[in-house]
């Protein structure tokens, strides 16, 4: 199973054009982008204490929820998205040490043909770790794609003020 799982995790470097990547990063990592406090990282019942994030939901429940939705249209084309479940930006702040948040799936239902992707807006020493032990470094303009059924976890980061990712769930 470990080998099969590794084959299902795909990494794409330089996913966006330089222009699209710069526009996205400049828009999301500026003082005017509306981030919202979220007191947990994975689910409301998460057991990881003292970890939180700021989020911005671009799309959820069959509806565009943000004026910034236009920023992610290049992703929808490249990923060949048929139907969106959710698209969410996450921002975490620097920590003193690297810690794993906890393995989870973004969704536990309707997993057949459901995909998840994580796009790294900026580089950091934060990682995404998969249930098979595979680790993906948080490198700017990198996208990692995998079936939604695959458990994964983010980590804290120590080498920059903020780590921004965009989380995609779609069919």
Explain this structure:
With 171 residues, this protein is α+β, with helices and mostly antiparallel strands. It has three helices and eleven strands, in the order H-E-H-E-E-E-H-E-E-E-E-E-E-E. It has helices at residues 2-8, 18-28, 73-78; strands at residues 10-12, 36-38, 53-60, 63-64, 84-93, 115-120, 127-130, 135-137, 142-147, 152-154, 162-170. The strands form two sheets. Strands 1, 2, 3, 4, 5, 6, 9 and 11 form an eight-stranded antiparallel beta sheet that branches. It has a three-stranded antiparallel beta sheet with strand order 8-7-10, with no helix packed on it. Strand 7 (127-130) and strand 8 (135-137) form a beta hairpin. The longest helix is centred in the first third of the chain and has 11 residues, at 18-28. The radius of gyration is 15 Å and the shape is globular. The mean pLDDT is 92.
